[in-house]
Amino acid sequence: MKSIYDKIINLRLQLKYHNYMYYTLDASVISDYMYDKLRDQLIKLEKKYEKNDLLKIEHPVLKQIGSKKLHIFSECIHKTPMLSLQSTNEISEIIRFDEKIKKHFNSVNNIKYYCDLKIDGLAVNLLYKNGILISAATRGDGWIGENIKDNACTITSIPKIIVGNNVPETLEIRGEVFIKKSDFLILNQFSMLNKTKVFSNPRNAAAGSLRQLDPHIAKKRKLMFFVYGYGVFTSNERINSHYDRLMQLQKWGFPIHKNYLLCNTSVDIINFYNQICIERSKLDFEIDGIVIKVDSIVLQKKLGYTEKYPRWAIALKFFSQDVETKITNVTFQIGRTGMITPVAHFLPVNISGVTVCKASVYNFRILKKLKIYIHDYVKVYRAGDVIPKIRTVLIKKRDKFAKKIIFPKYCMSCGSKLLHSFNFTRYYCPSNFLCPAQKLQRLIYFSSKSGIYIKGLGQKNIIKLINYGYLRTPVDFFTLTYDKLQMVPGIGKKLSTKIINNINFSKNVRLEKFICALGILDVGISVAKILSKYYKSAIKFINTNFKTVSNIKGIGINISKSIITFLKNKNNLFITSKLIDQLNIFFVSN
Question: Which positions does UniProt annotate for Zn(2+) binding (predicted)?
């Protein structure tokens, strides 16, 4: 049972992390397909062991909608929750959805469905009082979002005042903010010329623009808006059709995209989906599928909701496009924790409007499974229309020039012999701060928001401080002085004062942030919170042993081995002990 418990806790933590990355930071690190696979695994396990009291938690991640907001903007409470959508890649699921709905109401042809595009942007909630826009908010956790009204007001397709007859006293509008493909390309070209941030895809560009503190920046991004629904909708006229409500919203000045369908059979839905698949490349904005909703508001209310999504709607998502290209090289990158990641480089190809030329192969096991050779032809796709991945190797096209990939035995940065992880899937350099490549990444992470957060110390300044010999380990952050900083080009008096003040401020750090900042393999913020809650003290944590840590609920064998391996390293233990002396590390139960 311990192994099952560990697996369920691990899946919950993974899903919580990916929700945070996608909804809060707009920085997805996993495809929708892989997320759904993790979620399906968890659903099956929780259903199988639902009667076990150990596995019951107050707020299961399966019921979570979105994620917590950032603390940059003020809170905005939605009048009605912004729920997620159940989704599928399988057409058979749409047929099953249709059959289930019609069986529920003992009807065959009388139930209508409204189908439209699933635009890949950022969902927002607009609240109007007496026809005047009073707030605009992101989805957030489904109940509370971030108030981004100032930025939303720069979008010309969002009405600031509703003009027309029978405008409700209170009206919630749900829609998607996005950036056109053509404007996205211009934005990135401009960014490259000015050496500023280049966005990986249009969704991230739209989300990042809406979260700018300066509305003038958002205005320059040429954001667009389409309505797909509503929350509170009260009207003098009884409008009991989703389609009719959208048509009314259009009369009031809200933009509705012309690609929609009102139908009553699954065959019509599938034909619409196939048609959109063909037309997808012609659209000047990104979509990742279609959405199907029961059109009748009365029937919607009868079907109701789960805690996460409405029972009367479903999204049918696209599979990513595969593009053929040729492998030119495979390199090996050293990550913050010393992990060696193979990266396949290939001839540049355009996938869904984005040019890609490399893809992470993640670990040694996947590299072996794919059987990639240099000069091989491969099929490449963007998982979730975001992350470049290799689908398959075209073995039949392999020629005599193909070269086998030799996995390194020694670290490319410090020459240390590489060690394998406990399940032989990954290799890593054990030298930690003694490895130059790791040292840079570890110092950047330690001082970042994910670590203890020293504001004003960006990557460029950290590199300068390393080159000047002022930074070798995290302990050196707390020996920096105003005079030392003044010696570094580009760090003036004002910035030096700011950095010193922020270093002093960062000395008060929560235990889980401290543990996370150490950069222990497989120990992110979620695991760090579990460790913090158990040990409640940094001293107790560094003096732990394998038996103790492996018995903590939610900490598996591999993570336990990573923690003990880190703490047994004399250099790591010396640095960690020095940090404990320098910092005020405190535990807060929450």
Answer: 411, 414, 429, 435
Q: Is residue 227 domain-resident?
A: yes
Q: Which is higher by pLDDT, 31 or 47?
A: 47
> In whole angstroms, how far apart are CA 98 and each of 244, 269, 274, 277, 535?
21, 10, 17, 21, 52
Distance CA 521, CA 523 (A): 6
Instruction: Determine the Cα–Cα distance for residues 560 and 553; give it in Å rounded to an integer.
Output: 11
Would the pTM of this model clear 0.70, i.e. be above it?
no
* 377 known member of a binding site: no
From the CB of residue 194, how many other CB atoms can be counted at a distance below 10 Å?
A: 8
How is residue 283 written in tokens? Answer: 């659209």
Backbone φ and ψ for 290, nearest 5 degrees, come out as -125, 160
Query: 135-181 pLDDT, tens per residue?
Result: 999 988 788 888 899 999 999 999 999 988 888 899 999 999 999 99
Q: Which residues pair with 263 in a beta bridge?
A: 113
Catalytic residue (one of 68, 100, 103, 118)? 118
Residue where the block lists tokens 């990042």: 208
In this structure, what CATH number is given to the domain that contains residue 29? 1.10.287.610
* Both tokens assigned to 156: 């010309």
Residues 124 and 260 in one domain: yes
- The token duo for 446 is 């330690």
Name the domain boundary from 317, 335, 364.
317
Q: Does 32 carry a binding-site annotation?
A: yes
Q: Report phi then psi at 323, rounded to 5.
A: -130, 135
Domain presence at residue 425: no
For 465, other C-beta atoms within 10 Å of its C-beta total: 23
> Is there a binding annotation on residue 411?
yes
Residue 251 annotated as lining a ligand binding site? no
Q: Which residue has the higher pLDDT, 26 or 32?
A: 32
Active site residue 118: yes
Claim to verify: residue 103 and residue 164 sit in the same structural domain: yes
70 within domain boundaries? no
Q: Tell me: do 312 and 329 sit in the same domain.
A: no
Amino acid 146: pLDDT: 87
SS (H, E, C) 325-392: EEEEEEEEEECCCCEEEEEEEEEEEEECCEEEEEEECCCHHHHHHHCCEECCEEEEEEECCCEEEEEE
Same domain, 570 and 479: yes
Q: Is the pLDDT of residue 22 over 60?
A: no
Closest CA to 27 of 59, 67, 61, 85: 67
The tokens describing 172, both together, are 């919630």
Instruction: Please indicate if the annotation marks 116 as binding a ligand.
Output: yes
133 and 281: one domain?
A: yes
CATH number of the CATH domain containing 290: 3.30.470.30
Q: Is 174 one of the annotated binding-site residues?
A: no
Residues 351 and 498 in one domain: no
Determine contact, residues 470/484, Cβ cutoff 8 Å.
Answer: yes
Residues 255 and 200 in one domain: yes
2 marked ligand binding residue: no
Domain that holds residue 36: 2-63
How many domains does the chain contain in total?
4
521 labeled binding residue: no
CB contact set of 547 (below 8 Å; sequence gap of 6+): none
3 state SS of 87: strand
Output the CA torsion 245→247→252→256 (10° steps). 110
Q: Any known ligand binding at 176?
A: yes
